Amino acid sequence: MGQDEKKGTIVLDNFNSTANLATNPGFQSTLSLDSKEVINEKAYDPFEHRKVEHPNSSLGSLVHLLKSSLGSGILAMPAAFKNAGLAVGAFGTIFVGLICTHCVYVLVKTSQEVCVEAKKPSMGFAETCGAAFEFGPKRLRPWANFARTFIDYTLTATYLAALCVYVVFIAENFKEVLDEYIPDYKLSVETYCALTLVPLVLICQIRNLKWLVPFSALANVFLIICFGITMYYIFNDLPNPAEREMVASVKHWPLFISTVIFAMEGIGVVMPVENEMAKPQQFLGCPGVLNIAMAIVVSLYGIVGFFGFIKFGDSVRGSVTLNLPQDEILAQSAKILMALSILFTYSLQFYVPMEMIWRQMHHKIAVKYHTITQISIRTTAVVGSVAIAAAFPDLELFINLSGAIFLSSLGLLTPAIVDTVHNWERDLGRFNWKVYKNIIISIISLVALFAGSYVSVLGIVNKFNSVQPETIANVTSLNT
């Protein structure tokens, strides 16, 4: 007792009507001396507590979401149809598109609900997965930190792999054009990958999503023009659809699924975009930013894939722009526009892995070194993606493998698991239909993961073996 206290006297310093029992972590209580106020207390609204320095409008968020999904993948859709056939490809694109949209929806909805429970204004992808376990069944709560960490590192690896694909897209399209107009200086794809280094390093120094909106808008404009030119060539003297295979061999379907998932999935960008909206209530719902964006994405992907395969058949390449005529300026301009569109998209996709890396590191570094550290990390990450792209420049196989390993697990399997865990003790629907729905999604994801990876790796091995004799022959002829 203090010296000023008299024996038998109770000192009530800092007394208030709501008592401080609730602040004791060992005794969580909602009771107070004025329980009526607590009962009538307004539920926590995360949207009201969000304080975003540079919020995006709903239109700006739509642009970002479109750009994250409408990238290099749209031009890979004819190659995807080659692995499925016209009929399976058409229905499969709609089916996979609906699943991808649903998975994004349940992830965002879960995030908004756990924000209320955790009393946090917003959460990222990894935080949402961790919180779903943390506020889920008691037996699964110890897994919360593992789920959070696993998603963080997997998401970073996913988008770094996608960035490597982007570098190959840019390099191959520039090579196609410059080889035609500067035939005396034909460079390898690897060299063109290296030449992308400087512009990519510069554009990736932009750290705020709001300042990336003009780049996303410009990339969309380039993509639309390129799309128009590509469709012009596709519809010009279009062959009879009956000449194309309607149902491809089932063993190639996993490649179709993994390519479409790679093309459509922008799940890592979804949470940052929703978190930085001025009116996040407009993200879900009908029509909503998500539904509008995905309706546009699925429609465009289906059209390009369907008619692109009719036009070029089995000769279609990893990017359909590479099938356009070499000797026509209009066709070559489409390749340049596509390369520039992907160049500007790179910085938006780079935002996701960089956000995770910086979140893990910034508290370990003195504030005065934050700027130089950011520049160093961003530069190193870009150099790494360019180096990997130069080492594995086969575009179609790279897309298939990336989609199978990373995006099938993150884009489909993870939301299905998170949705099940979050609703396990809340609302699984009549006859537990949510459980069965998520089981089906998980099976599709695992098929894409294992079968797609196996077929992709087999293709890489076969390609490597086919190159070896040619290389040996070239070396022998040089020695002779």
TrEMBL record:
Primary location group: membrane
Span-the-membrane segments of this chain are 59-81, 87-108, 150-169, 189-206, 213-235, 255-273, 285-309, 329-354, 398-418, 439-461
**Record keywords: Transmembrane helix included?**
yes
Q: Which GO terms describe its cellular component?
A: vacuolar membrane
Where is this protein localized, as stated in its record? Answer: Membrane
Every copy of the Amino acid transporter transmembrane domain together lies at 57-457
GO MF annotation, one: L-amino acid transmembrane transporter activity
Query: Known InterPro entries for this protein?
Result: AA_transpt_TM
User: Its membrane topology, per UniProt?
Assistant: Multi-pass membrane protein
Which keywords are on file for this protein? Membrane, Transmembrane, Transmembrane helix
Per its UniProt entry, which superkingdom is the organism in? Answer: Eukaryota
- Alphabetical list of PANTHER family matching this protein: AMINO ACID TRANSPORTER, GH04538P
Q: What is this protein called?
A: Amino acid transporter transmembrane domain-containing protein
Its source organism is Euphydryas editha (Edith's checkerspot)
Q: According to the entry, what is the taxonomic lineage of the organism?
A: Eukaryota, Metazoa, Ecdysozoa, Arthropoda, Hexapoda
